[in-house]
Here is the input.
Amino acid sequence: MFDTTHFPKAEKYWHNGKFYAWADAHIHPMAFALHYGGSVFEGIRAYKTANGPAIFRLPEHVDRFLYSAAVIGMKVPYTREEIIEAIKLTLHESKLESAYIRPLLFYSYGNLGLVPKFCPVELVIGTWEWGAYLGEKSAAGVSVLITHRPRVHRSQLDMNAKLGGAYVQSTISGMEARAKGYDEAVFLNLEGNVAEGPGENIFIWKDSLLKTNDSSESILEGITRTSVLEIAEDSGIKTAVGPITKEEFFGADEAFFSGTAVEITPIIEVTDASNPGTKPTKYTIGSGRVGETTARLRQMFEDIVTGKIPRYKKWLTYVAS
Here is the structure.
């Protein structure tokens, strides 16, 4: 039996058109993806609203899901509409009011050469209750470690594809940061600018300007990131997209992560360990507390995903209870 301690209220998952009990594992240990990371995935959230569970920006997530599959050369056996319906059906079957949703396409059992010539592509969808990604204390702000390992460069991989194997770098750096007492890691890129977290984009606030970077800085341009830019602009907050230097990061009045799992999480402390030959240096972001603009955007985002702002209901896909 599989323990569901870290997958609260997970009872069933969808695999190739059928539901299985969460503890019922039936994927062969010689599946290609298990050995080489030949998979693509999405992280999606559903929220409790007055009209039942609603999935945030589901079509956009599925579009990126299929884009990622194309990057890795997958022949996906499902249409866009079929995947959307399968995700909605899985959430409905779970009977959760709010949930994290994980669709995964992977090369299954067939051969174990580095080219999956004989490996069919399979789809699995799981959903469970997942709270604050960086812990409940993250509402008060997190501390981050700038790792000495630069982010994979955009010239090496398509950074806008969520490729399973590419995330081993995120795992290594995330584990390193936590082992040293920090809440999360931050990557620089090969150019020496701030890139992103292991699974999060970064925003800074300085001199009444909200700034983030783009794919030219070796990041995945997240769906939450795009949403935050639109929300800010609609609210009269001036925004900019461009490179973020370390000095800009350290000197920001406010900073925060954005992403499906992390949502909007304030960053209040940064330790620069990017040069292994020197002693790490600690910086406090602004006052060391959650800033006014970050708090405002966090509240707006919460109101939007829970269906409280009519203007943004276009981003919600409601799932009948």
